[in-house]
Amino acid sequence: MTRIQHSSPKKNCLIGSIQSGKTIADAAEIAEIPYGTAKKILAKYCATGSTSNCPRSGRPSKVDDRVPYLKKEQKMKRLEWAKQNRGIKWDRVVWSDECYVHLDDLRGRIYVTRTADEEYEDNCLIPTFKQSSVRVMVWDAL
Length: 142
Fold this sequence. Notes:
alpha+beta; 2 domains; two-stranded antiparallel sheet; two-stranded parallel ribbon; 4 helices; about 15% strand; Transposase Tc1-like domain-containing protein; nucleic acid binding; RNaseH_sf
């Protein structure tokens, strides 16, 4: 049997009905929530003062961020370039880029375990390489 997670507006409707003087059974019928669930929602509201769901325990699965492989020297050069060009009026610059689209990359998704603030740390990234037998070059300018 699957668990249904009721939305906050629905739970707020239930709590509002109870606070306006309706019985739990009547409020549950109005909000279209089973009576047992309504009792649990009311107990949680009385204990916490809120109907919102708490964050779940455990770490949610994340798909790796695909980034080009950069050596430490390349990262330092990019940072220096960004510092040197900090004051440029970027709305007057034409941006262009080219990209190979690999048509036979069958690796699938790779999941990593990380916290929210570790998103772009090297040990949480899977580098990508431009090596494929079937690829298409795409170029564009803005």
